[in-house]
Specification:
Low-confidence stretches: 9-17
Radius of gyration: 24 Å
Number of strands: 5
Distance between the termini: 78 Å
Structural class: mainly alpha
CATH superfamily of the largest domain: Intergrase catalytic core
Shape: elongated
CATH architecture of the largest domain: Orthogonal Bundle
Strand order of the largest sheet: 1-2-3
Largest sheet: 3 strands, antiparallel
Strand content: 5-15%
Mean pLDDT: 84
Helix content: 40-55%
Amino acid sequence: MATMTRPPLTIALSRTAPALESLVEEYLAVCRDKGLSVKTISGVYGYTLRDKFLPWCASRNLTEPDQLSDQLLSRFAGDLREHGGKNGRPLAPHSIKTYVTTVGFFLSWLHETGQSAELSMPSQRVPRKLVDILTRQEVQRLEDAARNERDKLIVRLLADTGVREGELVGLRLADVRDIKQPDRRVLFSLKVTGKGSRDRMVPIQPAMYRRVQAYIQQYRPKDSGSTRLFLASRKRPHGDYAPLTGSGVRQMIGALGEQAGIGKRVYPHLLRHSFATAFLQAGGSALDLAKILGHSSLTMITTVYAHLSDTDSDRAMMRFLTGPRDER
């Protein structure tokens, strides 16, 4: 007997789902008003709701929020698992979790705005994926492989501050700060604009501050017509320098990884993971790390950096047990 196969999860959006479709668009507009990044809204929220959730609802003639139920939402998660990928193939656990979480945010908004009953998506467990990192020696090899001060400085800033690729290329000359304190100390930092247009101050060492200033004075193109800290290596046809792009940084870091013989794929976010791991291994707190990296909660820290070994935990415990204690 021939077996029946379900159609792929992603199908053409039916015009019979105006209510849910309009609510999705309203929700995405709310997300934009809250200052979420365009990449997050279009690449994650928009894709999940428009290209996954709405087509699934349309294929089952679900046109109104009150037609949804916990049982149906559980079926949605199951369908994602079985054939939610390309060409109806199974979907990876991490992708399933992303889609289910995103739909859960939308459902919570529906409930909070009084447009549906309280609904819940089934929880998704995903296997813990260990994060790859670079050692400090490998970071030094990357820097040594760079042929100019701009590229060397970019490697070192990514490795020693943990800033994101987009945050680095967005830096402007005025974002390199030296702030005098009431006790006459001077704090050096970078003013970084992160996700959701949220600004934060990322500390840098005095030597790094001096190095950045030396780069500006000696190596950065003069009369560039741009206030960006990092510029492209070549002039544009009309004579000025374009700001360096995230794509340019990715290509440069990847090429340096090959030239340095690292033996693994090297990319800007790998340097961010490497910084975070080194920070925690050195005894830094997860709360301080979250502030430096621009995370709004500790969830990402405790989830992503589970690759720290038992030895690291032992060292942290020993520092706690053998360190100075207040007399009670």
